[in-house]
Amino acid sequence: MKSKNGKILKIILVNAFVLFGLFSYTKTVEAVSINNLSFPRLANYFLKTPISEEEAEALAQWDIVILGMQAQDTDPEVFDILRKGNPDIIILAYVAPVEFPVARLGILESANGPWHKLNSGIDEDWWLYEAGGDHVSFWPGNWAMNITDDASLASGERWNTYFPKFLEEEIMATGNWDGIFFDSVWDTAAWVNNGDMDFDQDGLKESAAEINAKWNAGMAKIFSETRKRIGDDAILIGNGGDSYKNYLNGRMFENYPDENNGGWETQTPQYFSFMNEGQTPRVSIIGANTQNSGHWNDFKDMRFALTSTLLHDGFFSYDWGTENHGQLWWYDEFNIPLGEPLSEAQNISSNSSELQEGLWRRDFQYGIVLTNSTPDTQTYQLEATFEKYEGTQDDLVNSGELVTSVTLSGNDGIILLRKLDLIIDSPFYNNSPVKVFDSLGNETRHSFYSYSDKVPIDKLTEIVDLDGDGTNEIVYASGNRIYLKNNNGTDRTSFLPYSQVYTGDVSFTVGDIDGDNKPEIVTGTGQGGGPHVRIFSNTGVLENPGFFAYASNVRHGVRVGIGDLNNDGKREIITGPGFGAGPHVRIFEGSTGRLLSAGFFAYDERIRIGVNIAIGDVDGDNKAEIVTGAGPGGGPHIRIFDSQGELDRPGFFAYSELLRSGINIAVMDVDGDGSDEILAYL
Description:
There is one protein chain. By secondary structure, this protein is α+β, with helices and mostly antiparallel strands. Among the domains are: 41-103 and 164-189 and 217-335, Glycosidases (TIM Barrel), CATH 3.20.20.80; 346-418, Golgi alpha-mannosidase II (Immunoglobulin-like), CATH 2.60.40.1180; 428-612, no CATH class. Helices cover 13% and strands 29% of the residues. The protein has an eight-stranded parallel β-barrel. It has a six-stranded antiparallel beta sheet with strand order 11-12-13-16-14-15. Helix 1 (53-59) packs parallel to helix 3 (78-85) and helix 6 runs parallel beside helix 7. The longest helix is centred in the first third of the chain and has 23 residues, at 208-230. The protein is elongated and about 105 Å long. Keywords: Signal.
């Protein structure tokens, strides 16, 4: 399976039986931002230790990773691996504020580990006892803590102040963590241990009302003290407790949709409530699982929980269950970058946003999410043609086919991609039939016609934001003139990039080459013109009279591209000659036109077919590559080079090798994953 950043992952089934109720982690961190995190947003609840290097590298694919706090002792190197693999990752320390792993302390970590340090300061009167004097235990091998103010003071501390102090000084102070995940967070506790709790150790069982009131106050004090000590920048999440929104950034909804807690109709409104009312940034997690069956390939179950998560802005986790949090399961849907949300969730069944059973839809930049929360099969007629993701797991759902309607069984969901219809930020000939490839030559989407009804057919066109206002404008060339239009097709201006004496065609590309955050229009001549490159402002005013990319007396024209080939923040101008010249690519300094590289031949230099070029980061390394297509007379051969003219990828044929019409190319990040796709057309 392909991960979000393009790495290949294996499904690794890890036996990591949960040491329920003990682990603590935190960090005095800089403010965590979730603005760079794409949808779907993913969390991994991973309590296995030790953690191998392979596992750590795989975990970096998730946006939030929850680790046992003992990882800072057993696996200190894992934090650097995670942050190197994913600089935006949020790492949370798993802790259970209401219990301690007495029976397993010796196998969790070394004697210098955080659990041992926490244990060394626990006063005997901070344990929670039954009325008969026995320890209360919520989980086998763990002793419960008395979180209330009825616990005795020891050196001026109770458990509900000692524990937050420990989190500050021993966990967050390490600098490893972005926050804390609190397990066993309950609003009330009279339902636990048959209500047999003696907070003040007077030998009498507390009443249910006393238990609930004092428990709630004790939990609130732990959260309040923790927040005061580690600040508002740290992320605090609990796995319950809707009454603690004033302190927590989010809640994990474990076993979602948990029928024992009201199912979808109860937990989904609670999820929305925490996402709307918790502390910012809001990072609630839908924690679905296999109910301890280990049946990772129940794709319908996974999809229903994932698409329900996407009805709001939270994070999604899917693993074994309460007995084992240690999986690296990666699903087709995790690979679908949806972009930014365009709408709130809408109940199509009732045409409202009221959270009740129905067929739900939410629109995103690159696709839509549909969730059927009813038990009945639902068919939905789409307003346009959408595209199913082409995956490797559930072939019937992720088939890659184009659809105009969708039928969803009860408690199921699907993510659909918007059909591509227009190339953005890269020149193309209007109304071209375009094929979409990754850098290895795999077709990743359905072919489409890139067409704007505001531009004449077959004219070189670029759809681009010329003035930085967030709205794209239209630039196109017709004959020897370049036209600038508003998005609605009204005229802005036009200009002749060369003298009126020149009557041939012109080529162009648009991009910021001088670092002023305003794009320039770089032009080249067509067939019959000299290889004269010129630079104009975004309004068509000449800024640089330009240079000749090849000998000035050659009359094959010149194609132009712009890109930052070495990731130095400055864009270069890359050129290729037209038909009749060798496929000679050259590189110039963008701001001055100074020759930086004498260049290289993208194909056999004896073949006088010229070369088409497009510039973009097609392999996700934050450096632009030079993508070439053979000119007329050559096969539809696409190759990829680095800034030194070395082959970066082996290349591929976009159509039959027998064709001899050459291949036109463009680049565009069609799915918002940070890597450009290669767009090819004849």
